[in-house]
Amino acid sequence: xxxxxxxxxxxxxxxxxxxxxxxxxxxxxxxxxxxxxxxxxxxxxxxxxxxxxxxxxxxxxxxxxxxxxxxxxxxxxxxxxxxxxxxxxxxxxxxxxxxxxxxxxxxxxxxxxxxxxxxxxxxxxxxxxxxxxxxxxxxxxx
Length: 142
Hints:
The protein is α+β, with helices and mostly antiparallel strands. It is 38% helix and 43% strand. β4 and β5 form a beta hairpin.
């Protein structure tokens, strides 16, 4: 027997998967306003790791816009491939691979990643990537 709460959790997970898929589509298209439209006003993007210009804790849509602007002026995306998505209630995990080039040093780096999105009412409230932060930091070094 499937309870109504279980059905609601499945529906919420499906909606959240669709939101995250749209976020990745907006990122791939370079549509920053579209990507920001899926962020809550209180969103926290946690990209803390070893020393690099983008490793910071970003708060609010302004913070996310700052992260994306810094990323786009310091790194060039060579490959960005989300491969699998998993959802459980208010969280979605995307697993994939990316490959970047740091513009200033011309060094390339890549890593598999997991990105954890927490959503509330169809908007991202928290984002945390998990990948090889050391490889990214080393690519910034001259």
